[in-house]
Amino acid sequence: MSSSLLAAAPWWRPNTGDTLVIRGGRPLVGSYPISGAKNAVLPLMVSALLTPHLVTLRNVPATLDVAVLATLLQHLGSEMHWSANGAGLAVTICADRLQPARIDPDLVTRMRASVLLLGALLARCGEARLPLPGGDAIGRRGIDFHIAGLRAMGATVELDGGMIHATARDGLSGADILLPLPSVGATENLLLAAVLARGTTTIRNAAREPEIADLAACLIAMGAKITGLGSHVLTIEGGAPLAGAVHTVLPDRIELGTLACAAALTDGRLFLRHGRLDLLGAAGALLGTAGVEMHEVDGGVMASRAKGDLSGVDFTTGPYPAFATDLQAPAMTLLATATGASTITETIFEQRFRHADELRKMGANIAVRGRTALIRGVDRLQGASVTCTDVRAAAALVIAGLAASGETELAGLDHLDRGYDRMAEKLAACGANITRPS
Ligand code: UD1
Fold it and tell me: Residue 111: its pLDDT value, please?
């Protein structure tokens, strides 16, 4: 596994240690570079399959998910050229000789975003065959909207023994598609398919997450005709062949929100370089009410604790611009030591409170009733041995360890590596006592 990752993503350093050891209680002070967004880079990499010309992505985060997807793209016949400079990692993808049949099931089942290969391969090659995708165990995570949308565009899609087989021998045709929910993945998959489909596609109740506008911006740079960016209705005039493009991945709003929580929790002060406050949606104001001070400065965002204690707040996760479900876990860590009680209602994924069990091991007072968690703030968290249960839970536990007294030992690091570019290194540079013993 690690050797095939190295072939497609030579920058990937298989981490030796299985645990992170954090000695908490130090304020985080310094400059922390926010990487390119995990949830933007994956669909952007897949968009390169839509053209035989070169697509260059800059500001690519060096994460395990990127390495896995690079390996999948390489198996499909794409070539990848990586370079690194002061501005981070860049990749140029050449998909002029695609072989859509060569998908490694082990890799597909490692990441949910691999479902995006369906729309792109179907549009470019007229056929896609892949196992049902994997990813975090945070709920049912169906792909029925993806499949219904592709069928509306004329594809034949069969599910058999855990495999999806989709064909569109005569190509896809534009369609008017209404999504039952504004699904991020379904919007991206249908957008990828629609740019090569004949005629006009309308995606109604489309997701409005900034990562979708970033994907659309890259597709437009490749020559696609898409209107309605940032709105609930995307209109795509498809069918024309796409050219290559150079695109810079937008900064990760989830990493920004998480690190702002960390600065406030540790009573430190972080310059979150490249961070963009405008991408946080409702989470910006809500975290402010809880006592996370954030303001824009030249080149990024300054984050610290507002005067006084952190205060309990109530919030409900929802599609953008509502509070992001991906910031729910780090916000729970923040509220675990806030004055008073807080409630968090999770409306996107039904099993996304597993980190509450881990935070309880660190002394947090959290009761979960169905989709709502009640958090009563305690004075301080204490270090403990905890396990990451999904990508965002991993970051929540890291920042809990940074704020806690004593030592925290964190296992299940694949989850952290999937979504965060060198988080431990970046934190250590801001004064954290964090090591990954081999
Ligand atoms: C993406 C993000 C993830 C984020 C989520 C919500 C990536 C790689 N992942 O995941 O980090 O937490 O958006 O912001 O970008 N659903 C169905 N059927 C479908 C599609 C979705 O029932 O065909 C349901 C899901 O089970 C879930 C909800 O819709 O309850 C939202 O899911 P969706 O927006 O599709 O999330 P992902 O694209 O998987």
Answer: 82
